[in-house]
Write a structure and sequence with these properties.
Elements: E1 2-7, E2 10-15, E3 19-23, E4 32-35, E5 38-43, E6 46-49, E7 58-68, E8 72-78, E9 83-89, E10 92-102, H1 109-140, H2 144-151, H3 164-172, H4 178-182, H5 186-192, H6 205-213, H7 217-224
Antiparallel strand pairs: 1-2, 1-5, 3-10, 4-7, 5-6, 7-10, 8-9
Length: 232
Amino acid sequence: MYAIVEIAGQQFKVAKDQKVFVNRLAVEEGKKVAFDNVLLIGEGDKVTIGAPAINGAQVGAKVVKHLKGDKVIVFKKKRRKGYRVKNGHRQSLSEIVIESIVASGAKKAAPAKKAAAPKEEAKAAPAKKAAAPKKETKAAAPKAPAKKATGKADDLKKIEGIGPKIAETLTAAGVDTFAKLAKTDAAKISEIIAGVRGNHVTDTWPKQAEMAAAGKWDELKKWQDELDGGKA
């Protein structure tokens, strides 16, 4: 006999005495647990399908131990932006052994107790949070103008050859939009960023900014693919 059952948000095909690794369960090691969301049970040529779950069916298991899965490396990179982020992740898992598969007549008393606890917490939680928004809205009101002020600036890093440091320097000098950058002479731009380390070619920046200000992103991207650090 085998069954397809949902455990901790995932579906597994299980049989008796089979070991399964599932997302971490809130159950102590050595204790038994039952899963009522059984979607299918098969025994020989006979297959019973639920709609969506089979009424009265249950899969019993025992928690062997809690552990962590293999480390997964997540690496993110943005082209021409100098953006690189590397993170590692190990999923928390529980190893369980399937002890029984019941096709009908199983009691659902245990799951009902687990479901009752979150309801009590849910009632108490809103009461505590209700007072917090009143204090936060008063404090947040004065900060609204600051958000509007920063929203006017454009992301100058979209210009080929401009990195985070140069964008910050230009913004500090008042050149914080594509339109302003388009009207600034290449020689003037070189003067503004003179303190930034590196050899920066500013010849194409005003033209790139002009295309960005006009919303010609497809043309700009095609041209940028031909550039090398802002140099044609």
